[in-house]
Amino acid sequence: MIYYVVKVVISAVIIVAVSEISKRNSTAGALLASLPLLSVLAFVWMYIDTGDVAKISEVSKDIFWLVIPSLVLFIALPVFLKMQINFYLSLLISAALTAGAYTLLLMVLKAKS
Questions:
Q1: CA-CA distance, 98 to 113, in Å (whole number)?
Q2: What are phi and psi of 66, to 5 degrees?
Q3: CA–CA separation, 7 and 3 (whole Å)
Q4: pLDDT digits over 17-47, tens only?
Q5: What is residue 35's DSSP assignment?
Q6: Is the Cβ–Cβ distance between 16 and 37 less than 8 Å?
Q7: Rg of the Cα trace of the chain?
Q8: Are 66 and 102 in contact (CB under 8 A)?
Q9: CB neighbour list of residue 92: distance below 8 Å, 6 or more residues apart
Q10: What's the Cα-to-Cα distance from 109 to each of 6, 31, 81, 112, rounded to whole Å?
Q11: What is the C-alpha to C-alpha distance for residues 66 and 60, in angstroms, rounded to an integer?
């Protein structure tokens, strides 16, 4: 049980740190957010839990492909905000477009396999 609490606390601390750093310096916050810290933590937790390096390798490859549709959010959100669309609506539309991009990519990857 303590192990799960430690995992949650470490992950939460990273999220809070990004938020607080971003308030003071957007570039520093963006840099911290762009680092694959959660992926690295997930790899460490998986290795500790299973020791299965083949599974970690597979997850790493899948993360690579799934980063591509996530970029839609980072392109669409500033465009909508620049158009002076309400923040929450901009975020919702951007998230919906991102979900569509994920769906499309997953369909393409499934068709290739």
A1: 23
A2: -80, -10
A3: 6
A4: 889 999 999 988 888 888 888 889 889 989 9
A5: S
A6: no
A7: 17
A8: yes
A9: none
A10: 35, 29, 32, 5
A11: 10
